[in-house]
Write the structure tokens for this entry.
Amino acid sequence: MSQSAYAAPAKLDEIVGLLAGNPGAHLLAGGQNLLLEPHRSQITGSLLVDLRNVPGLAAIQASAGGGVRIGAMTTIGAIADNAAIRDVSPVLAETAAIVGDAQVRNRATLGGALVAAEPGSDLAPVLLVLGVVLEITGPKGARSLDASAFFTGPGKTALSPAEVITGITIPSTVTGAAYERMKDPATLYAVCGVAACVVLSQQGAIARCQIAATGSTAYPMRLPAIEKALTGAKPDAAAVSAAAGAITDDGGFRGNFYASKEYRVHLTRVLTERALKRAVARATT
């Protein structure tokens, strides 16, 4: 690390320029993932571009339509403690409060957590089901991207070279949402986690349902087959249990020395049912 060049510009366009002009450069946000990277030799000799001096990247503010915008440099701890986030999206604040431990939450940032694309990320599945829109800036200017299109593979995202996440916007929607997980006590990542978001029609049926898994899958991803099975159904215990029980190993699940693939599929069924039941209960209150 001591052999790496370092820059900390105060303007976003300068950050983008440094990334574009230095292939292989690394962004430094909270540093929670980057500085603890086990293969530090991959970082040595590259340019570290620090985001801390760019104003506004840690702001939390109201957005149009009653939603909330969260800057990419906002720490996970700040998300957990923010009253506006708790009001617009209680599930996001709740989930942020159980990420890692206090030291992790006070250092790790929202943007860093997204870019790391950890397969056991707690925040990722919640963002996938909430209709979150990411703000991204790069050499070609600014663009918006739905969170559901952001994670593209294990450790991979839809970011192009030299692009930077500047923030996310959470819409204000009348929904019920919940997150359930089983964590690994050593790594504090999710062995399996499931987020569910449910919107009920005036007749009480499920008008829209979004479910996403983490930890058990190769990368955080939605479960469209289960979403489709529940859309239009009555949100009773039998329908929820049947939909969760229909989850099978369709090739998206993973196994390792922490937990086998079969066990993770089982956990996904159990946690999907729990998350859906809590989401439905919140949608009806």
Residues 5-49 form one domain.
